[in-house]
Amino acid sequence: MQILITYLTIFILFCFLGWCLEVVYRSLRLHHLVNPGFMVGCSLPIYGTGVVVLYAIADLNIGVDNEIASFFIKAIICAFLMTLIEYISGLISLKIYHNRLWDYSNRFLNIQGIVCLRFSIYWAILGGIFIATLYKPLKGFTTYVYQTKDLYLVLGILYGIFIVDWVYSMDLMTKLKKYAEATHITFNFENLKVNVRERFNKLSQKRISIFNEFKLRHKLFEHVENKDNNLMNETDKTSKEN
Mind listing the pLDDT tens digit for each residue in 6-49? Predict the structure, then answer.
């Protein structure tokens, strides 16, 4: 039971913290507010999944007595598994939903533009930082959650919100998949959001706000259901891969 509560807590916590990190990074880089990922709410599941894996690796007894050697072995394992997760999630999105969530095609030693050496190195560094700095405090926090039964209700509410958001977002992805199959394209979800944002701003004649940013998914629904060819054609797309 404690293991279940531990991983449920870590997943939902870092889905949110990862979303916060991406909002800050992308908004500063693009000079406007960005709601990253394919979900409507404040959640990026790949971060939650990633940190669950990092925690499991940090908690692993690999049978090496030397602490320094153990640390580097775990960091390498982190890099491999996180790269694998990134590749599998990117490949599923690309092959099943015809949606390229990110593109590393211009990076050195990349595989299908989904993973690359540079970010694998980043994962090794982040894994090492996590093991050295966050593992023990996070273990203490999850133990506190497990021992505080009142927090189970909070955890349940958060997962209720997450599930509703996931179902809504997957409905959109399914509609986009059908459109992509009908038109034989692979679309870039982030570019599609940019085009919808520009149209939304022109029509509303308002400066972008956090509330408008969350409305973009609803606008995406409208455009896809209306088979807005101009909108889809404006996005960066490639020929559908066999």
Answer: 999 999 999 999 989 888 887 787 777 777 777 877 899 988 98
CA distance linking residue 176 with residue 97, whole number of Å: 7
Q: What is the pTM of this model?
A: 0.75
State mean pLDDT over 69-91.
91
What SS3 class is residue 105?
Answer: coil
Nearest to 97 by CA among 200, 189, 16: 189
Q: How confident is the model at residue 228 (pLDDT cuts 50, 70, 90)?
A: low
* Cα–Cα nearest to 21, from 7, 38, 34, 39: 34
How far does CA 1 lie from the centroid of its chain?
A: 27
Distance (Å) of CA 89 to CA 53, 99, 115: 14, 11, 11
Phi, psi of 239, deg, nearest 5: -65, 140
In angstroms, the Cα distances linking 147 to 1, 48, 52, 141 are 11, 22, 20, 10
Alpha helices in 31-62 (DSSP H): 45-58
